[in-house]
């Protein structure tokens, strides 16, 4: 049945009337209603609940249709989609992996013509309906249910930007991380893609081996590692015809609701910059998740003039705290021995935020051993220090 015949005003009204109710109970209570697909209505209610923080403006539109949970889970958030939209601009964009259409829509605000490609017909139909309801210029979105590589190979059109977010699930639903294993295989088709556009943006898994990917896609000049509230969400690989094929620039971003910070380096710089080691001083500093994922370990120390605790401990120390640092900073209150008596004395409630870096005991093991739970304002940091010894510190977070 056509999507427009399923997603009727009656269905949308039912969804709005029952948004605050339990979906499972709704199925039992309203198992059959004339001219209404109750299962689809309940699915829309469930999806809207899941998407209210991820896609607030889409949830606010009463006529946006949400797909099955897997497509909703894999799509970009509104925040990261808007971030990507700032990196692109031009007359024409083709999205080779349209999916739910979130990235297509937000990136599409920067273009006059947009081609959306998706092999699943139902997803393509839902995307077309959503574009018509969300955009003030829906005619600029051309929605095609086709194989993207076949389309790109056969078209005589040339695009300002190609965007691709290869599917990272295998035939048995296993997670895939290498670009050549994903669908479509952009590694095998990279040369053809470069012939069809002036710019290419690849969205990859947060688990991607960045250095390996740069070997596979030799022409990539910029890598963006995007974290939201210190959790890495996406890695973007960008090729631009106008840029020289120099050493790729790595940019680690940490986004929050109110601000963002960027940290830049290259892997050539990372290899060359000196790093100094030191015992623990007044502050312990932990780089953001984005910097750690990007691999800017020595660059972080060099740019912020910090000393490292140990070659394999990605914790840093200083007597003075740098401004606008991308990471978390802790004031060291005292070095402690990991023993039951001392732990009980310092944290009588059993609540303390436990962090472990290059220590024989992981954070969960420490919590189990001393019956601790994360919480409160105090921190317990366990790590290996410059003398090669595992130690622990009672700390207070300051940044």
Walkthrough of the structure:
This protein has 399 residues and is α/β, with parallel strands linked by helices. The chain has 17 helices and 16 strands. It has helices at 3-6, 9-17, 23-29, 38-51, 56-60, 69-74, 78-85, 102-108, 121-134, 148-154, 190-196, 210-216, 267-272, 289-294, 297-304, 340-346, 363-370, and strands spanning 92-95, 113-117, 141-144, 159-164, 197-204, 222-228, 231-240, 249-255, 260-265, 283-287, 307-310, 313-318, 327-336, 353-357, 378-384, 390-397. The strands form 2 sheets. The protein has a 9-stranded mixed β-sheet with strand order 3-2-1-4-5-7-6-8-9. It has a 7-stranded mixed β-sheet with strand order 11-12-10-13-16-15-14. Strand 11 (307-310) and strand 12 (313-318) form a beta hairpin. Helix 2 (9-17) packs across helix 4 (38-51), helix 3 runs antiparallel to helix 4 and helix 7 (78-85) packs parallel to helix 8. The longest helix has 14 residues, at 38-51. It is flat. It starts with a helix and ends with a strand. The model has no long low-confidence stretch (mean pLDDT 94).
